[in-house]
Amino acid sequence: MIRLHNISKYYGEIKAISSVDLACKAGETTVLIGPSGSGKSTVLRVIIGLIIPDSGDVMIDGETLIRTNALAQRRKMGYVIQEGGLFPHLTAMGNISLMARYLGWNEGKIQSRAEELCGLTKFPEDALSRYPLQISGGQRQRVSLMRALMLDPDIILLDEPLGSLDPLIRSELQSDLKDIFRALGKTVVMVTHDIGEAGFLGDKIVFINGGEITQTGTIQELLNSPKDRL
Ligand code: ADP
Ligand code: MG
Fold it and tell me: For the chain, does the N or the C end have fewer beta carbons within 10 angstroms?
């Protein structure tokens, strides 16, 4: 479904990522884990076409990503950016319906899709009229997820979606995310720096350090491998 081949991206002298090879299977959850500054967000931005790599290529759904198909390919993906990225001047409903309105969906279709997503993400429908600052951190993440799911994309990219939440809310959202990913059968690529979260949510776990992939496998494979490689 997603294949990165020999991807490198530098900012001047600064290496963001280099020689990254990655394959994400359809319907699976791939978790990228690594320390801050290791290149995790860069990998997601390359997948969604927001960053053009210096070298290498990206294939989505069997099609190589190029300038002319980038927009069409991006429409197949929902993206939850680091820190949620909700527009503060729009209500929850305003945020989740932004793209649908832009694409000309009628009000009834928008409303019924929003209700469906509230059920899926356990977000109270009566809070759709609130602004991001008027809901809790956990609810904001649910709204970010609804926004990413609105157009029913095949692929969902999530950049540390639970990063800023306190532990109890975080574990509740982890299990909700797992249920949602399983129910929808989407291809998911998620970034975290928490190994417990990676093991809980990932069918496949990819370690990244200093812009390079150091190890890949299921949590079982990784736990059985020599400790110094983890
Ligand atoms: P992570 O998400 O793992 O914290 P990033 O992918 O955001 O890491 O960044 C990887 C490296 O690339 C870091 O050293 C970061 O400082 C650098 N970097 C990322 N974006 C830029 C940019 N726009 N300009 C300069 N350096 C950048
Ligand atoms: Mg990041």
Answer: C
